[in-house]
Amino acid sequence: MTAIEEWGLSESQFWLHGEQPSSPVQHDESLGFWNVYGYPEAMRILSDPATCSSDTTRVFPQGKQFAEGNLVRMDPPEHNKLRKLVSHAFTPKVVAGLEPRIAELTGELLDAVDGADRLELVADLAYPLPVIVIAELLGVPGSDRDLFKKWVDGMFTRDARMSLSDPTPEQQRELQEVLAQVGHLTDYLGEHAAERRRHPREDLLSKLVEAEVDGEKLTHDEVVNFANVLLIAGHITTTMLLGNTVLCLDAHPEHQARARADRSTLPGVIEESLRFLSPFAAVGRITTTEVELGGRRVPADQLVLTWVAAANRDPRRFPDPNVFDPTRDPNPHLGFGRGIHFCLGAPLARLEGKVALNLLLDRFPKLATDPADPPDFQPNPNMTGVRKLPLRTT
To answer: Which residues pair with residue 217 across a beta bridge?
Structure first.
């Protein structure tokens, strides 16, 4: 058993414990939806928006007020039109131009803990770095990151499993609390969007306010929900990616030594971390028609929870799937999704990861976890990442 398997990871995330599902597609009678664990089945779902819709409001109408303009919940052709509005801001060339700022921020954050014999990776670096970067791109104050963290934690740091067939009063209360936190963030962004209508700037939020699709400007809700997705997805993936990668290197000293000696190997380390400990473990889709998946007939209008984290451990696609191997090539993991919803910010997340890890390894030659103060993982089984990672520096 590796150190990673000893750190109290959720039993429901069986793939993290070296287990394989009894079937790649299973129906959860108690919760009323389908779980998909296999790689080819996940690929089919993520690559076919006509059959597997991203509009989960078909079965979760409670979140409809936050769906307009929400890229994650949209299907073609509307999705394609809105995605084009900001895709230019995340091209590899544009993102590469952000490297000096990312390095500067990383240096400042590490300066703040210079000389200490320990650091808490999430609070000191993995959270503030990406949230400041995406906030600056959007044009909202990075200094408000404590507010963002409070609201985002309220959305994600809970066990979010909810029965579709017979939700309990407690599950319904949990859902309302999540929606309330989303509301706080959209209200905040709405105030900034209204200010941009009066006084545009050179930032993404202003571009959204001024943008037109088919000759019409985006509505207030479209702008706010679009910005909401960018702010949340723009930092939380990188936060978990950084923590997960440090954990993987700590658990595999031979790979850490190799990465320290040859920094050109870091991209491979990051990609394998995304496969081995996939930050967003599951994505939801709704079937629009009956579909066959993994030998099962899934009716129309069913929630299909696609466990990309489990698919990334499918031995049908990945030899020795439970082995952390940064030299794995090819490595077609689904950590950033696939198809039309492939993560818009993937180039940015990869760059932030590479820059931050390089500087972290430079500053701390003896960085290591502390057995007496273990990591604290996200309780939400739909995510894989630490919310607290104490590290010794000496």
So the answer is: 212
Contact 164, 97 (CB under 8 A): no
> How many CA atoms does the CB half-sphere of 46 hold within 13 Å?
27
Which residue, among 251, 245, 196, has the nearest Cα to 354 in the 3D structure? 245
Instruction: Fill in the amino acid letter for 275.
Output: R
Rounded to two decimals, the pTM is: 0.92
Residues with Cβ within 8 Å of 160's Cβ and at least 6 positions away in sequence, in order, are: 174, 178, 380, 381, 382
From 3.40.190.150, 1.10.630.10, 2.60.120.260, 3.30.390.50, which CATH number describes the 4-143+228-392 domain?
Answer: 1.10.630.10
> How far is residue 362's CA from residue 40's CA, in Å, rounded to a whole number?
40
The rounded average pLDDT for each run of 10 residues, N- to C-terminus, in the chain (394 residues) is 65 92 95 96 97 88 73 93 89 92 97 93 96 94 89 72 69 78 90 94 92 88 90 91 97 96 98 97 96 96 97 98 97 97 94 97 94 91 93 94
Phi, psi of 363 (to 5 degrees): -75, -35
Q: CA 86, CA 226: separation in Å to the nearest integer? A: 10
Q: How are beta strands 368-369 and 390-392 bridged, if at all? A: antiparallel
Distance CA 307, CA 328 (A): 21
